[in-house]
Specification:
- By secondary structure, this protein is α/β, with parallel strands linked by helices.
- 48% of the residues lie in helices and 8% in strands.
- The chain has 24 helices and twelve strands.
- Strands 5-4-6-1-7-8-2-9 form an eight-stranded mixed beta sheet. Strands 3-10 form a two-stranded parallel sheet. A two-stranded antiparallel sheet has the order 11-12.
- The protein is globular and about 90 Å long.
- The mean pLDDT is 91.
Length: 615
């Protein structure tokens, strides 16, 4: 080994390769997340953008190491490489779970996800592990070789420093030039134009593709603070007004206007209840309700920001979606929601309350739901701690929750009431350590028909179904069933299931996170005429649809969604990255849809950033 000449140069080469290997895998991985044809990213110069931006950062890393004294250099390299590996690991696991790369504001919801940290290991990519293993091998080799680096410590040479800086700037500038131009880009093209994507940085997956791993993470932090410091609320409010002038519509009565006028509403957002398990064995109650009520088979639950459950919870309650901001949506205390479901019904004489098993501090529901208009948020966990509920009972089981007479009495009222209940039983992880699964004493499903994971998942859904059946029985006994409408909607597909190919096959969908978000939505009352509704809609459409059915007057411009039964209803659903899924009956051009999608994304963000409906 001592005879090897210029060990230092060999070490620099290995360090270069280890840093760049992260970028290579990330680029390959990202190609599976976006449609290159849709984004027009199949040109040769787009394929080398990530490499140019990445090389500029790798050269900077080498410059930093060059400036470090030799006796510390290799230890600093190892520390830097470990930091990069940790960020890389977190990013890939995050996107495996949620379908998008992390942005800086996602760190604010990390605390809520820590209790499910074990599920990360179900979402690890083999390629990611191999890449990390490769970087660790590089670290070991560099450390071993450093023992034979007997060269004399010399001061960093100015020429070398200058060359490295020039090379880094060359790569960065060339990459920026190859982004192309966003001049004369039409509104709908903003979500697909590389320069616009790089400038706005609101589409994480496309931004990662064109920027590469290092540039993405650095620029995401920069854009977060830049947007924070340069927010112009008056300009954004003007854009909202512009949007409303272009797309504003008037409400018109339809066949479903007022059919539930004066009825109580129990809105159940079902944790991870996917449509492929709603059958006569696993979920007989939900199956019956879907056959005897309004069954919306083409409903999607798009994910925007924060946790998927709280994103859907927010959309159900406001007709909008969560955004990336300095605070998570449930911690924002500078936004008013006068047109939320709870506030609209409260104005019409309803008593409004929300319920969940978990502590009120989780997703800050105790305070957040009051901002949404609820008079009270009841947490079973906190009621147990205060002695008002049985401390030995597992209320994370939906059946146990609904079976409790004390909780049921809090859900109903002598006057019209609106109750919002977020279930829990279906929550990941789907193994024998699941706390709800372990608490279910009577497991009635056949183990022989399913593998272990599917059996556990179906058993958890069965627990939710038992809860809904028990609720119906209690309402019947209380003589409230005739006066009550049930709204049943899943927060998201079962993304915690380890085999997404299997889930896609069972759903008869492509293994694509947008297609997979086709999730259950049922409206049922005792006197409703059964109907299968195949109109395409998303979670934000549910609120105005319900207001129309309750005969509550509302202004359509106050919501991103619209009444699914109205003649102005959009025949497409849209997602945070600017893409969409349209129905076969949609007669709008793709350009027209993309234009409106872009407006939707901007309006949604600007309303929340400016507190547009605030006092």
């Amino acid at each position: 080994m001592k005879k090897i000449k210029n060990v230092e140069l060999i070490n620099y080469l290995i360090m270069f390769i280890s840093f760049f290997s992260i970028c290579i895998f990330t680029n390959i991985f990202t190609r599976d997340l976006i449609n290159l044809d849709s984004y027009y990213f199949n040109g040769f110069h787009y394929h080398i953008l990530w490499a140019l931006f990445s090389l500029s950062w790798v050269v900077i890393f080498l410059l930093i190491l060059y400036l470090v004294p030799k006796k510390y250099r290799y230890n600093v390299y190892i520390i830097l490489n470990i930091v990069v590996d940790v960020i890389f690991f977190a990013q890939i696991c995050y996107v495996q779970s949620l379908g998008k790369f992390m942005i800086f504001s996602d760190l604010f919801v990390a605390g809520e996800g820590l209790q499910y940290v074990h599920s990360i290991f179900a979402n690890m990519s083999v390629g990611m592990l191999l890449t990390i293993a490769f970087t660790f091998i590089c670290m070991i080799v560099v450390k071993v070789l450093s023992k034979y680096d007997e060269g004399v410590q010399t001061k960093p040479r100015f020429v070398v420093i200058l060359v490295l800086i020039v090379v880094s700037l060359f790569f960065k500038t060339t990459g920026y030039i190859l982004l192309g131009s966003n001049k004369n880009v039409r509104t709908w093209e903003e979500n697909y134009n590389a320069k616009s994507i790089y400038f706005n940085y609101t589409n994480p997956n496309a931004s990662m593709y064109i920027s590469g791993f290092y540039e993405y993470n650095a620029r995401a932090i920069y854009k977060y603070f830049y947007n924070l410091l340069t927010l112009d609320k008056s300009a954004l409010k003007s854009k909202i007004d512009e949007y409303n002038n272009i797309y504003g519509v008037e409400t018109k009565n339809n066949d479903y206007t007022g059919i539930f006028k004066g009825k109580n509403v129990i809105y159940i957002m079902m944790e991870s209840v996917d449509n492929w398990v709603i059958d006569e064995e696993t979920a007989p109650t939900l199956y019956k309700l879907s056959q005897t009520g309004l069954n919306f088979t083409n409903r999607y639950s798009p994910f925007f920001n924060g946790g998927q459950t709280i994103n859907s919870e927010f959309a159900c309650n406001t007709g909008m979606y969560a955004i990336s901001d300095k605070e998570t949506i449930y911690d924002k205390d500078d936004v008013n929601y006068p047109y939320s479901m709870a506030n609209m019904l409260k104005k019409n004489g309803y008593r409004v309350a929300s319920f969940h098993a978990n502590t009120k501090t989780f997703y800050n529901r105790g305070k957040f739901h009051k901002r949404l208009g609820y008079d009270m948020h009841y947490s079973a966990y906190d009621l147990q701690a205060s002695g008002l509920l049985d401390k030995n009972k597992n209320y994370f089981s939906d059946y146990n929750f609904i079976s409790d007479d004390n909780l049921y009495e809090l859900m109903i009222s002598d006057k019209p009431f609106f109750t919002f209940f977020t279930t829990y039983s279906g929550h990941l992880e789907y193994n024998t350590n699941n706390k709800v699964y372990k608490s279910i004493k009577k497991k009635t499903l056949s183990k022989k028909k399913y593998g272990e994971e599917e059996y556990i998942y179906r058993t958890l859904v069965h627990d939710t179904d038992d809860a809904i059946n028990t609720l119906i029985e209690k309402l019947e006994k209380s003589k409230l069933l005739d006066k009550t409408v049930l709204v049943l909607v899943s927060d998201h597909y079962v993304y915690g299931y380890s085999d997404t190919d299997y889930v896609a096959m069972k759903k008869n969908k492509l293994n694509d996170r947008k297609e997979l978000q086709n999730t259950p939505f049922i409206i049922w009352s005792k006197d409703i005429e059964a109907k299968t509704v195949d109109t395409i809609l998303d979670t934000a459409d549910i609120l105005p649809t319900l207001l129309n059915m309750l005969d509550i007057t509302y202004d359509p411009k106050n919501y991103l969604g619209d009444d699914v039964f109205s003649t102005s209803h959009d025949d497409f659903v849209w997602f945070s990255d600017g893409t969409f899924i349209k129905s076969s009956d949609c007669d709008l051009s793709d350009e027209s849809i993309l234009t409106k999608v872009n407006y939707n994304i901007n309006k949604n963000r600007d309303i929340l950033l400016t507190n547009y409906y605030g006092k």
